[in-house]
Amino acid sequence: MTAALVVAAAAFFALTFLVHLVSIIAALTRCRARPGALPAPPADAPAVSIIRPVCGIENHIAETLESSFDLDYPNYELLFCVASPKDPIIPTVAALLCKYPKARAHLLVGDERISTNPKLNNCAKGWKAAAHDWIAIADSNVLMPRDYIQRLFEPWTEKTGLVCSPPIGGRPQGFWAELECAFLNPYQARAQYCADAIGIGFAQGKTMFWRRAILDQAGGIRALAADIAEDAASTKVVRASGHKVRLVDQPFEQPLGYRSAREVWRRQTRWARLRRACFPHFFLPEIMTGGIFPMIALGTLAYAMNWPVTILVIALAFLWYGGEIALARAARWHISPLYPVHAVLRDLLLPFLWLDALLGSDFEWRGNAMSVAADSQTA
Fold first, then answer.
1. pLDDT at position 151, please?
2. Could you state, in order of their start, the residue ranges of all structural domains in the chain?
3. Rounded distance, CA 341 to CA 121, Å?
4. pTM here?
5. Class of domain 43-259
């Protein structure tokens, strides 16, 4: 084995292990669970509009939508947006409107084609109907805690242009839902908070909290049609305005329920293809993430130095995944007793996921065929 290969293996291992530890610390700083909710704001707190695009029946959908009505905030409105009058979710929303007659809540039906992105088209009418200057766009599967709005305001400074929350998987049912938690929580959320810590935060479409003027200066909600993904376009709009995307402390849960292997794979490939199309210079290094390549590098180094290969690789696995477990427990995220199995499988899949995203363009979102190769702007 050449000296150059040994040096390369040592450098790669040291760099990746250091980045892994730093990312865990960065996420711990922001995501550690608090002892209680944030206090209720005063009666004159800024009014907020919450837009919730809904489409079809999802796991835990009645619970996540109902959480919108129980927020500890004095002045907010709810705008539920659905594209088709035949959508099966409409009776669920209608029942909630009847259950909470005093809530300022409305169901908006219709589809304004401002892009090839169905979610953005669905949200357009909500943005126009929103009565307030502070607007949150929240996916239907986000479970809102009572201090949801307070937590959105908390990171806001004069340099902030958008506040978001990555999805945190909760209440998984079955092996593949556990695997999705391993992707969402100690892997993707950790990466998001690491990026936020160094000042290059990315928008996440699960929750996007805008000050209307910032988006309106860029052309309004139509500006988010510049990319196939509205959160990628949001990131670029905010950065172009001289502001930063920030993440909430303690991100919000998405109850998963049952997931099939196909559902998990298709969701991850969709996101990976969107990252490759929208932020290729950040996507390319993803091939080196996860614990498998650092373990190979350490094993190579140990073999060259005549050190105990198996013992060192196992020790690294304990440290690598033990750090992820510690993060999840401190943040009170779901963590399975079999988490190391799910995490290792996740990391084994990452190179294949990367190759799929590099070579593929097409994907399906809620029955809509889409492609990252297509221009997201409509004529």
1. 98
2. 3-28+280-371, 43-259
3. 40
4. 0.94
5. alpha beta
